[in-house]
Amino acid sequence: MPSEPFLSDVSLILLSITVCMAAYLKYFSRPSPLVHPLLLGKQSDLSATREKNQSGIYRNWATGHGSPLSLRPASSLKTVANIADIKCPQRFIYEIKISNDLLKLRANNVSKGLISLLSTSRTDKASKGILNLLPDGFDSLLLSIAMSLQPDVSHPLLTLSNPALFNHVVGLPVPPAVIVVSAKILKDVLGELAGAGYSNRTIVYAASSGVEQETSQIQEVVEMAKEYALKVVSWQEVEALGSAMKDTDRANSAKGEGPFAIQFWEDDEEKPQTSTVTHQNVTSGIASVLSLFPAHKRPSPATNDMVVSCIPLAQPVGITLALASIWSGAGFRTVDEEEWQEDQAQTEEKNGSISKRETVQLMNMLHPEKPSPTIVFLSTPMLVEWSSEIENGSHPYLPANIFRDAAKQHQLANIADGYVGRSGYLEKFYWKPLRLASLKKWAEKANMSARRGIKPEIEDKIRAVIVVGPTPSPRQLLSAQIHLSLPITRITTSLTSTSPLFISHFHDLQQLPPMSVPTTPTFNPREIAFTPKSSQSFQKGTTKNVDSVEWEDAAEEDPVLVGAHTGPPASNIEVLVRELDEDVFEETGDIEGVVWIRGPTVLGGTQDEKGWTKTALRTRVLKNGAFSMFPSRQAW
């Protein structure tokens, strides 16, 4: 019979078990990275030649210099008019549940109704175009689709990136013939036109969501309009007028040539600028927007996706994102800006929050009476506010708070290995309850809990977070990835393109060190810059507004750090860096200068003789081909 093991044998057995467990935890239990590191090692393809005082031409590495830039996501999408041709089940677009067939029918009716209205009204023959002053909503999106159905471009859609440009547009030598407004501002717009002496215009009003206009009030405005030779009709009348006409499919008669919309915007010096939008601009923009997702992560009706965006529809990227969601069969809505203005008037701003605006916008995004979002496009302040509330929150099961540091270190170790996700025991028993408890406390702090209950499944359905505009600092980005258990994609946009200019890899979890901005920039930054409060890990950042001070003074007092990198150029954008900083190049070898862009998504009327468009962005190119942006007024 074998002898009983001695104490030394027991020690050897325990040591062997310990070694095996350590080897398992070290080499076999670590998660696989979401993306192979080699794919992040070189993200841009640089041309072999360059001219003096500028870089070579950068393209996305996946596109390369030997391939043409994509003009559409599929051959079936020839024009914007084909956006609703794909068959898909009903889904919510804003507050309306609608199928593509019904959406196409309503857009067709609006298009016919507006053209009929123009042909039968007393509109000044010198007037051209339909000015869209509607707030973000279904009617505004429907109007954009309807105007793309025109067989000609004699009356393009006019959009304003800033409502302050209204007087500039109506004062043009060729003013708009029709102005589409919400019922809320109908009387104000009528007063502006009458006071300026404008006549022979048609004003179409659409009732705002949740607002009932008294018939007597509308009739009063209609009678007032007659005194100034102005015609006022309702949105319902326009649709009825179109539906009564001969039923023709205007999508097949729409030409993909020429601009169907004109964008008015302000440059970095706040001077009014004009750009033209063609069907090719939008279809190529849709291809670029969809390229930021891996193939299996794209918006789809199969996963009941709802895209929620903080980008206004009046901006080129905002409307392109909406159209891309519709073409993909997903739902879509934007964060309600009017709702924030109403809540701000009723609720005092809370100390310790970045802005009451961001709090209400996020609560609107997670509104229990609206479809739950699965893909969200947020600004940096919204992301920081969201992450900070979770970080400063308390777990609903008090004993679980003792595992806070261990849970963070576990997440940090996974991120260092290139992985973050919403799976595992810690996610189920610690992070998910913590996020829900923080969300409920957040609603109470915003005084909205009485009318906006929080459902557990709302936050849990989110599977993609994209940050738009100025990127968060590397520390804020890391904190958000830890507390949301999701990778954070960053995109940089411009008012001169229908697509993002730069898109970080969907699964890029690299933590690159921040860089200080130069002390003598060529522009005056107006965005909020975030600087770390201390050197401790997971420390919440503090804000510093540098709008009211000179850049040199701000840099000497507290250098502003460049945010996390925003990735390589988008799939169908070419980037050129001009006005290079030779001192930086000689010292570090880094390319730093002003961003110029070229490609099918760039709006017309902004290019130089070689087809390049200057942006308000200043960048530094990293060694792996990713770009880091310096703070700029025209961030998105």
- Biggest beta-sheet profile: 7 strands, mixed
Class by SSE composition: alpha/beta
Within the largest sheet, what's the order of strands?
9-8-7-5-6-10-11
What do we call the CATH topology of the domain at 83-255?
Rossmann fold
CATH class of the domain at 83-255, named Alpha Beta
Distance between the termini: 80 Å
Poorly predicted sequence stretches spanning 5 or more consecutive residues? 343-355, 516-561
What integer value in Å does the Rg equal?
Answer: 27 Å
Overall form: globular
Question: How many distinct beta strands?
Answer: 23
Helix content: 25-40%
Strand content bin: 15-25%
Q: How many helix segments? A: 20
Overall pLDDT score: 79
CATH 2nd-level architecture of the domain at 83-255 = 3-Layer(aba) Sandwich
Walk me through what this model shows.
The structure is a single chain. With 636 residues, the protein is α/β, with parallel strands linked by helices. The chain has a domain of 173 residues: Rossmann fold (3-Layer(aba) Sandwich). 35% of the residues lie in helices and 18% in strands. The protein is built from 20 helices and 23 strands. It has a seven-stranded mixed β-sheet with strand order 9-8-7-5-6-10-11, sandwiched between helices. Helix 10 crosses helix 11 and helix 15 crosses helix 18. The protein starts with 6 loop residues before the first helix and ends in a 7-residue tail after the last strand. About 9% of the residues have low confidence.
